[in-house]
Prior knowledge:
22 strands; 7-stranded mixed β-sheet; alpha/beta; Aldehyde Dehydrogenase, Chain A, domain 2; Aldehyde Dehydrogenase, Chain A, domain 1; globular; 2 domains; 14 helices
Amino acid sequence: MQDTTYTTPALYIDGEWVTEASRYGEVLNPATDEVLAKYPIASEDQINKALASAASGFELWRKTSYEERIDIMHRAAEIIRENAEHTARCMTMEHGKPLADSKAEVENCASLLEWCSTAAADHDDRTLPELTGFVDRTVRKEPIGPVAAFPAWNFPASLATRKMASAIAVGCSVIVKPAKETPVSFMAVVDALDKAGLPKGVVNILMGDSALISKKLIESPVIKKISFTGSTPVGQQLAALAGDQAKPCVMELGGHAPVLIFDDADLEKAIDLSVTTKSRNSGQVCISPTRFFVQEAIYDQFLSGFSEKFAALRLGNGLEEDTQMGPLANPRRIGELDALVEDAVSKGATLVTGGKKLDRAGNFYEATVLANVPDSARIMQEEPFGPIAVINKFKQYDEAIEKANNTDFALASYAFSGSKETMDKLGRDLDSGKVGINGYSVVFLDSPLGGRRQSGYGSEGGYEGLDAYRIVKFVSQSVI
Length: 480
């Protein structure tokens, strides 16, 4: 019998789980439209209590040794794995993604805790070469202070964990505000840390009114750093608030990833990987491939092969074993995708397959392919954040690069080619924070994730992601 229980959403303030509130919101299952639970909306008093807790938690945690942090975070990883099945089911119920994807995300959370805690100890202070007249010259890396973290809903556990794990690994405390659509799966990570002995105040969770919580946290003198993953407009608003306080930010914002497929590429590999990657999270991924530019000699083959396999994907509830693609996160995405498709078709694009919501409960949208889309169509500049692929052709290399780089977004880019010379040039010429060549794997535990222009600034992940939560101090000690 399937486990269909859903964890009760709760705030986590000063080491205590809190379900009591004067107001509540609803968590919906996007595959069935049913109400899963009610989540507590944090009051101003609870926000203030979380801030005070984060301040005291930081003063304690910053003084702990790397060995103690490693021990707690590694024990928490073990607990996460012990409870992975239930956590993954909760994630699928609140998000909609296939259960296998949820299980992989839960495992990623455990791995993040382990990697960040160990890497933080390895990537610490450094001593500069000896210099006449000086006993010592040291570059010290110190935790910046309490952090306000705002993860997105599309990877509800791992995005929050990447921020939190990086911050606490170097000695910061964190207040995390999970997305209201997906509040529960990250709770399992914090519960594991609590059971592993994390001191109270090092991590707090707030849910509810996004505008109120972000304003209170960013304006508070307690918070020293802001980390946000989400849409560009919201990121700009939060960055403006932080700018008023002269507070640094990490902003991982929207994307509109191009894919260049050259006529010497392994065509079948390019088609199979592209369909798999485009369908992940129903296209609701900031680094999802969206604009496919295919060299004209193989354009028709790619278009027909991709369209056929994309349209054949099985859409359904993520808890069902044969589901390959789940629903969109919320109903408003349906209208936004419809508008982009209608605009493209009205300007001359060909709707090859899909283009509408499925006639069933839940937020299911057909796998959609648009071909020969003119540059004037909105979708050429606006991220669809859904299961829509644009497939256009190109003739020469320079034309392909120009098309790929022709948006305000620069988070990820991809390309497929069998030429070593072309591959080497692509790594230089594609203008984005991440480039994947002959594959879509661009996110690893030890690699940085960050964008350019409207896709944000700063890095998450890797050693760069650890240093995002540190400040640098130089200490020189002269000869007496």
